[in-house]
Amino acid sequence: MRIGIDARLVYYRPGGIAEYTRHVIQQLADLDRTTPYYVLHHRDQDTLARGENFRRINAVTPCHHRLERWSLSVELARFRLDLLHSPDMIPPGRGARRHVITVHDLNFLHYPQFMTAASLRYYNDQITWAVRHADHILVDSEATRDDLGNLLGVPAGNMTVHMLGVNEAFHPLPDADVVACRERLGLPESYILFVGTFEPRKNIPGLLDAYARLRQDSANIPPLVMVGRRGWLYGDIFARVEDLNLARHVIWLENVPEADLPAIYNGAAVLVLPSHYEGFGLPALEAMACGTPSVVANRSSLPEVIGEAGVLVDPDDTDDLAHAIQRLLGDAALYERLRTAGLARAATFTWHKTASVVLQVYRNVLSS
Question: Is the domain of 127 the same as that of 180?
C-alpha cells in the first residue's frame, strides 16, 4: 500500500496546521517502518521525515491555488497512491484511490467576517465537496466533529476525533533559563501573555479592552506581551492599542523563534486566550505543559483542551474576562491548584498518541 501525505502547507504558512502536519509525519516515521509513504513538499522545503520507507515528492502546485484540486491530481497520478492524507482539509480531485482529510475547524462558516475574501472563496467553495469526497475525516476536537455534523451533515461514523499533542520542549524550565531568555528579549519580570496569530478571530480587541479595564482599576497590573505574527485583517488591532492609550503597556513580539517559546510561557504570570473560535488551541496546551495557568474562552474546543485546569470566560464579556485575569493574578491558592492540574493534564496530550490514531484510520480506510 502506498500512502501519500500533503505537507506543502508547512512551507507556505506557519501555525497550527503546519505544526500538526510536521509532528504527525515525524511520529509516523517511528510508528510505521514498513509502509511506503510519499510526502509532498515544496521544492525549497526541508525534508520532514527521513525513514527508509519515506519518499520525498517535490510538488509544483502551490497551496490554495484556484486550480489546485486538478493540478495536484495530475502531479500525483504517476505515483498510484492507495491513500492520500490532506491535513489542510481540501483534497485533490483524484489524488489517490482513497482520501483522508483533517478538518481542524469551521471558523469560516461561523465567522465569515473574520476572513479575507480570498480565503472565504477558497474554503467556502470547496468544504462541502471536500467532506463528501473524503473517505474519512479526522477532527481535532468533539466541537469540530459536532460542527461538521450540524453544519454540513457529515455522519458521525465518517469522523474520528484525535486530540493534538504538545511538543516535549514545552515543560517547566530552570529559573536561570527563563531569566536569560527574558533579558535577551527585553521582557519584564512579570507579564500577561497572549500567543497566537494577530487576527480578529482571536478576539484581541476584546483582550485589549479587558486589559485597559484592569489598568484603570490598578496601576500594578503587569504588561501585556503579545507573541505571534500578523494574520488576516490585523490593522484594527494595532489601532485599538492606540485608542486605549496602551502603547506603553503592550509589548509585541512578532515571529519569535520557536525555541524561545517554552521560556516565554514559563516566564508569564498567566496566558490569556479569549478567542471567538479555536479548532484546538495549542497555546493553552503549551502553557499548561509549562506550568502557566490560563484564562480561555468558553467556546468551541477550548473547554475540551483546558478541562478543569484553567479559568473559562465569556469572550464577549469584557468584565468577565478582566475579572478572571485579576482573580488568577491575585489568588495564590487557585493559581497553584491550576498550575498542578495543568501539568498533569498536559502530560496526557502527546503527538505519539495523535499519530497512532492517524495510522489506525489509514489502516481502517485501506482495509474497508
Answer: no
* CA–CA dist 274, 249 (Å, integer): 19
Q: Average pLDDT of 106-117?
A: 79
Per-residue pLDDT at 366: 97
DSSP bridge pairs for 40: 6, 57
Domain encompassing residue 136: 3-165+350-367
Bridge partner residues of 195 (DSSP): 227
Residue 327 lies in a domain: yes
Within a domain: 170: no
pTM: 0.92
What confidence tens digit (pLDDT) does each residue in 239-267 have? 899 999 999 999 999 989 999 999 999 99
**Nearest Cα to Cα of residue 89 among 49, 147, 43, 157:** 147
Q: Do 200 and 159 share a structural domain?
A: no
- For cell 519569535, what's the residue? 256
Considering the domain architecture, whether residues 360 and 300 belong to the same structural domain is answered as no
Same domain flag for 218 and 161? no
How deeply is 232 buried, as exposed, middle or buried, from its count of CB atoms within 10 A (0-12, 13-18, 19+)? middle
Residues in the chain: 368
CATH number of the domain where residue 136 is located: 3.40.50.2000
Give yes or no for a contact between 59 and 75, defined as CB atoms under 8 angstroms apart. yes
Q: State how far the Cα of 78 lies from the Cα of 95, in Å rounded to an integer.
A: 10
Query: At 117, is the pLDDT very low, low, confident or very high (cuts 50, 70, 90)?
Result: confident
> For the chain, what is the domain count?
2
